[in-house]
Amino acid sequence: MPADEAIRTVGLRVVRGGRVVLPGLDTTVPAGEVVGLLGPSGCGKTTLLRALVGVQRIAGGEVRVLGRPAGDAALRSLVGYVTQAPSVYADLTIRENLRYFAAVLGASGARVKSVVDEVGLGDAVDGLVGELSGGQRARVSLATALLGEPELLILDEPTVGLDPVLRRDLWGHFAMLAAAGTTLVVSSHVMDEAERCSRLLLLRDGALLADDTPAALLRRTGATDVEGAFLRLVEAGSTP
What is the pTM of this model? Predict the structure, then answer.
């Protein structure tokens, strides 16, 4: 696996409940970029992300992450994963949650303070998670994923339900992480978020419609925005 690749899937096939969700996906994700995984609900985005972090049983093919098989024990401190539902304890404060996960990961107390500042939760750090807004809970989940200073960050619909200002702020933070060398894969069904990504994977019914930069995708389809490009690819039955 080349050093400039963070992820490679070859013939990835996933079957869930007797239904083929991913029929044989081939793709690569460059290192140090913000890669958007876009497509409608039910197209296989979450299944693909679960396969990347090694928690999804696969029926065939191969998934390699940072040069190792997905789910390899050596990747635990190198890959951060933020699920759609907040994966933190509602009856603990932000600080208590982060201290707990820091102990699991072997992160320092200084790192706890650092991630609190990174996600802008310093003023609420002693508040119970169960009493926070949806946006604040999303940022707590992101903070836990950042504790181990991961090389790869997998984010499943991290901005769903958030107001436009918070969405903008989170995407700004994602860009800073990428500039510092972290690779991010961010799933979304909101097409206007695509312009914030350096590369796009457009998924429909478990198959890739496109794997390209936003600018190249627009040139290829003649569309004025990514949503228009997606629709033109669907109508044309195009594949990468």
Answer: 0.89
